[in-house]
Fold:
Amino acid sequence: MKTILITGCSSGYGLETARHFHARGWKVIASMRTPSAAPLQASENLRLLPLDVTDEASIAAAIDAAGPIDVLVNNAGIGLFGALEASLMAKIRDVYATNTLGTIAMTRAVIPGMRARGSGTIVNVTSSATLAPFPLAAAYTGSKSAIQGFTGSLVHELAPLGIAVKLVEPGYGPTTAFAQNTAIRLEDVLPEPYWTYAQPILAGMAEPALFTTEADVAEAVWQAVHDEGGRLHFPAGADALAIMAGA
Structure:
């Protein structure tokens, strides 16, 4: 029985991915900052583990508690929607600390064990926004784009050691991090000059013609983990597939 550790399992893509793998006979370690609030029930093959990917001590403790890990899924992420000039630097730093540096820190933490065993898979969940950037998500897109480049290089670095590295690139959907922020005040993040062209974007976000579901992402992670052909990119969702086809 293989073991998979997934970050950001309190909701959305991480939660569905944990359920997807558990239902298929894997030993799942579902990690999140507050396991007591998770909509998951621990069982023999499903563990809930506290983990803050921005805290190196938390990462070390989680890796030690997890034991040998066959697959790491770096899913934990936060979003930031709005005009860049109106975005607080503190929030921008939080986005990069979680999305970019958190992914890098988790990856560094699992490599020694995988290298010692001569096998393992690392799946980094990014965004199709890295393939087709759109306005009002500059910091978020930048944080995910950094992981695209990081992963592309790491593939060649780890392949000789028997470790595979994959990218799962979801499209836009109701579980997208910055779409979930229902408390956002648009007047705070969109100064008046941006409203002229922002309205169509907001309308499209409210009712996208194509979108990504949690199940789409879970299945894409499943396909990435089981790929033996050296494929790197795994778009998830109808919109992501359309973007990839036109790339």
Notes: Strands lie at 3-6, 27-32, 46-50, 71-74, 120-125, 163-170, 233-236. The chain has a mean pLDDT of 90. DSSP finds eight helices and seven strands in the chain. Residues 3-246 form a domain with the Rossmann fold fold (CATH 3.40.50.720).
